[in-house]
Amino acid sequence: MSTANYRWVLVAAGGLLGCVAIGAMFSLPVFLLPMSRATGWSMTGVSTAMTIGFLAMAFGSMAWGSLSDRLGPRPVVIIGTLVLAASLALASQTRSLLAFQLVFGIGVGGAAAAIFAPMMASVTGWFDTQRSLAVSLVSAGMGMAPLTMSPLAAWLITRHDWRTSMLIIAAVVAVLMLPVALLVRRPPAAADSLPAPGTGAPQDNLSVGQALRSPQFIILVLTNFFCCATHSGPIIHTVSYAVTCGIPMMAAVSIYSVEGLAGMGGRIGFGVLGDRFGAKRVLVTGLLVQAIAALGYVFAGNLAGFYAAAALFGFIYAGVMPLYAVIARENFPMRMMGTVIGGTAMAGSLGMATGPIAGGLIFDALGSYRWLYIGSCAMGLGAFAIALTFRPITMAKAEAGTGMAPGSVSA
Hints:
The structure is a single chain. This protein has helices at 3-25, 28-39, 43-71, 73-91, 97-126, 131-143, 145-157, 162-181, 208-213, 215-244, 249-277, 279-293, 303-320, 323-331, 337-366, 370-387, 393-402. By secondary structure, it is an all-alpha fold.
């Protein structure tokens, strides 16, 4: 198969791997109330497992990304798949809250990190054109999790206890992900070549240390942190929020699915817009709209209101996320792409870690989730403000040579 055709196989493989891996981790929000009722563990305690998972994903992202730069993405993805399946199986058998938090959090979260950064880095290397679309399609596969894995988890929990349900999901991970992982390949050598001068090419003379200390990397990291802190709480707690508003469990899970379906459209739509208007411009606009959209949940009191809020919020937050990888590829060499994307993913995972514990604490203290969404809006405005300061590396160097003001901003 030609390189031009095989690169789309990589896109499909990345989408499927991400869907199953992220879906397995995000089955916990569906299990949240049943687990709390069956075990007597508090909502905050169970939610903390998700927070630990995001922390493990954060610190694992750069490590797995750097390893994929050295070994290639395939071995990293295979190892991550094996650890993910084993961790889910072990977590289903834990008998104490602390054991569950550690096994699910460290094992599942750390293993999920082995999929995202290596696959995103690999796909950006396979595409010189249609890069935003390709990365968005991989992300769209991950966005299929609420439409596939979450309903599966909800269906299982209505027929089995949470332990059996989680064990079945572990088996699904192994059966689906291992064969697909064998399709993953390094980008062809041609992908290491740089675009023509004047096109915003990455700077090949950058060392990894210089890249990680650059203003561009730091701004991407901070933006991703606040962006993910914006949508973390709403993603994790919306099902439980809807149930507390009197909506039945299966209907509440369908809100999650609406959010995921809208996110599919957002990922593809933002990918097309990113190729046409530039990833940075589209990202900044999306971050502003995301902040405002978070408030929609405050006013959602019935199923129709939740559907409307989920459709808007899901479309925006899912759409902006793939653009970080595109901006990274436009500014840094391919040889360190796993490390750079892993670093931004680390920041995003740290941002995601704020939502589960914050939502649990807010609900346990106030008996309501409304202030969670107001806080999400504030975080979103912070992400928007930081993203406005980003300048491409090539422009920053040009300004340094021409005496332009260092604080000037490129669209």
